[in-house]
């Protein structure tokens, strides 16, 4: 089941993150231990449409559509900025300081997202 939405080009990253989590049981357990939260992402594309995905690193260690069950932290940003963040071309702190990344919930948990995104970059580099 693909999580990609053609209206949101960067949503392909959720498939990459999901396959990174599914690739090895040890990596998944490590991500659960590091994350210990449900991360929700609300993206807005150039047409003004809004879509949500979540990364459950609290119980299942998987990615899904929608905000998930009681997200610990919700990150809202543009589809374009999310693409840059996942590819390593943008820094979450700089996006936040520039007002391009909105964080609701546990801000400290949001900092735990960086290693998971780096794993996705490593998997994407192998593709």
UniProtKB/TrEMBL annotation:
InterPro entries documented for this protein: SCP2_sterol-bd_dom, SCP2_sterol-bd_dom_sf
Signal peptide: none
GO CC terms: cytosol
Domain SCP2 residues, every copy: 18-118
Pfam families linked to this entry: SCP2
Name of this protein: SCP2 domain-containing protein
């Amino acid at each position: 089941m693909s999580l990609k939405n053609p209206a949101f080009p960067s949503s392909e990253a959720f498939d990459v993150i999901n396959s990174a989590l599914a690739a090895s049981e040890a990596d998944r357990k490590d991500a659960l231990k590091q994350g210990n939260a449900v991360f929700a992402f609300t993206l807005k594309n150039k047409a003004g449409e809004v879509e949500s995905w979540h990364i459950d690193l609290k119980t299942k260690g998987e990615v899904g559509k929608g905000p998930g069950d009681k997200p610990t932290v919700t990150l809202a940003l543009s589809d374009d900025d999310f693409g840059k963040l996942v590819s390593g071309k943008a820094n979450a702190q700089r996006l936040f300081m520039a007002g391009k990344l909105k964080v609701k919930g546990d801000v400290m948990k949001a900092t735990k997202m960086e290693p998971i995104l780096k794993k996705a970059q490593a998997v994407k580099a192998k593709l």
